[in-house]
Structures are given as C-alpha cells and as structure tokens.
C-alpha cells in the first residue's frame, strides 16, 4: 500500500512516518500544506491517505482534501470527535473506507489502528474488481475504478454487439459480444456507471466536467501514446437530468 501523509506539524509528520516503518507500506508523499499535498499526490498516486483535519491553513481542511481525492482515509487529528458526522457522510456518499485516531496517540496505538484499516481497505478493494474478456485475452481482472467508460464499437457495424472499453491506466480494448443490459451481471453496477447516451456508459468517478450548454461530459482516458487525454462524450437529452443530479 502506498501512503500519503498530510499534517501541518513537522514533528508529528516525522513521527507518523517513523511509526509506519514497521508496517508493509510505502510513504510516497509527506506534506505540511494542503496545496502542496494535492500537487504531489497527482504524481505519487497513493492508495491511502493519512490526514490531519485542522491544518492551520486557509487553503483547505483535511476533510476537504479527503472529499477532493476520494481515497480511503485515516484521519489522525486532535479534534476527530468534532468531525465524526462529516466522516460518516464521506463514508456513506463516496463509498470509501474511513477511520480515525485521536491525538495524542502512541506508536502502538497508531500501528494497531492502521493495521486494522489496511485490512479493511484490502478487503473492499478485492470486492471492487471485475473479470472481463478483453479481445483475445480471457478473464482479465480489472479494478472497477480504472474503467473510465464503455462505448458501442461503431467500427464493427450497426449489427455488432461489440464494445470498446476505455481505462485510466491502460490502452482501450475490445469487448466481444458484450451487452450493456448485462453490465450489472459482470459487476459493473448502475451506482458506478451512468448512461449518458445510448452508445455510452460512463464511470461517474471519472466525469471531470459536465457542460450543460453544449451537452457533453469530459473524461480522461489512457491514450495509445501512453498519456492521459481528454475526451468529450455527448449527452442525450433523455439523460441530462441524471448528469445534473451529479455533483460534478
């Protein structure tokens, strides 16, 4: 597991890093300020966040950072009880693993709490995978959150039931004889994937922007050149109300 740490107290930040040495994790980001932290995690791509809540920083609170990044988060702060309701809302609305430990804490308390949290994250991450046949490759295990959208494969002709599947971390692939109507049977749930057009099913977590006036959504997909590129997908009139209800 890759860990990103955010705490505005230099001594506490160093202490948390030291506490992590005995656990099977890698600290990929350790920052004292929210703005710097958000910039660094774009590159370090952590699996888990460990955040202080009140940062003494007018830019963002730890809770706001958690809502922005939507990753499993352990709050390590002196005032966690004040935020319990917000933590519950974060867990409920974003379907995330969320826990907290209140300062001051000992090394043993911190390690026990994080070890339990790692077990929870591992369990739920194993539930958030699907197995699909990609072209000639059979039964490929894929993280649901790596799938950006699915599209009708127009190149195969109007009679074809083939689809193209686009990812955030690998090049697009073909899904042979794949029906949109049976997505839930494959583990691609309606709570994750919304219909924006008869030809597109989009992962709501990957919608970067919805342009109501011009009726399209923006997503980022992994391109053939190995970089993320922005795509604009049309939104049909019948599905505009769905997009308006999303907080994007």
Summarize the SSE layout with pairings.
Blueprint: E1 2-6, H1 10-19, E2 26-31, H2 34-44, E3 48-51, H3 62-69, E4 73-77, H4 84-94, E5 98-102, H5 107-127, E6 129-134, E7 137-143, E8 147-152, E9 163-167, E10 173-175, E11 193-197, E12 200-203, E13 209-211, E14 216-222, E15 228-234, H6 240-245
**CATH architectural designation of the largest domain:** 3-Layer(aba) Sandwich
Strand neighbour order, sheet with most strands: 2-1-3-4-5
Number of domains: 2
Helix and strand string, N-terminal first?
EHEHEHEHEHEEEEEEEEEEH
Unreliable stretches (pLDDT < 50, length at least 5) are none
Main structural class: alpha/beta
Residue-averaged pLDDT: 89
**Which band does the percent of strand residues land in?**
25-35%
Oligomer: single chain
Q: Give the overall form.
A: elongated
CATH superfamily of the largest domain: Response regulator
C-alpha Rg (nearest Å): 20 Å
Q: Report the span from N to C terminus.
A: 28 Å
What percent of the residues sit in helical stretches (DSSP H or I)?
Answer: 25-40%
CATH C-level class of the largest domain is Alpha Beta
CATH topology of the largest domain: Rossmann fold
Largest sheet: 5 strands, parallel
What is the number of helices?
A: 6
Keywords: Phosphoprotein
InterPro entries: CheY-like_superfamily, LytTR_DNA-bd_dom, Sig_transdc_resp-reg_receiver
Pfam families: LytTR, Response_reg
Protein name: Response regulator
Characteristics of this structure?
alpha/beta, Rossmann fold, OB fold (Dihydrolipoamide Acetyltransferase, E2P), 2 domains, five-stranded antiparallel β-sheet, 6 helices, 15 strands, phosphoprotein, LytTR_DNA-bd_dom, Response regulator, Sig_transdc_resp-reg_receiver
């Amino acid at each position: 597991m890759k860990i990103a740490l955010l705490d505005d107290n230099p001594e506490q930040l160093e202490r948390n890093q030291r506490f992590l040495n005995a656990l099977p994790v890698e600290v990929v980001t350790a920052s004292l300020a929210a703005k710097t932290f958000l910039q660094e995690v774009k590159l370090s791509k952590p699996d888990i966040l460990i955040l202080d809540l009140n940062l003494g920083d007018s830019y963002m609170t730890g809770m706001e950072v958690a809502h922005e990044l939507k990753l499993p988060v352990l709050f390590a702060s002196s005032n966690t009880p004040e935020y319990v309701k917000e933590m519950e809302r974060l867990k409920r609305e974003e379907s995330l693993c969320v826990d907290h430990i209140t300062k001051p804490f000992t090394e043993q308390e911190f390690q026990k709490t994080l070890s339990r949290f790692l077990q929870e994250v591992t369990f739920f991450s194993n539930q958030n995978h699907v197995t699909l046949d990609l072209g000639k490759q059979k039964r490929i295990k894929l993280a649901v959150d790596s799938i950006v959208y699915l599209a009708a494969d127009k190149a195969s002709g109007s009679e074809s039931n083939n689809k193209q599947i686009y990812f955030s971390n690998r090049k697009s692939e073909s899904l042979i004889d794949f029906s949109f109507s049976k997505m839930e049977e494959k583990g691609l749930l309606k709570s994750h994937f919304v219909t924006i057009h008869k030809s597109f099913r989009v992962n709501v977590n990957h919608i970067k922007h919805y342009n109501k006036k011009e009726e399209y959504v923006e997503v980022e997909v992994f391109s053939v050149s190995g970089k993320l590129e922005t795509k604009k997908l049309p939104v049909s009139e019948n599905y505009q109300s769905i997009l308006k209800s999303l907080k994007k």
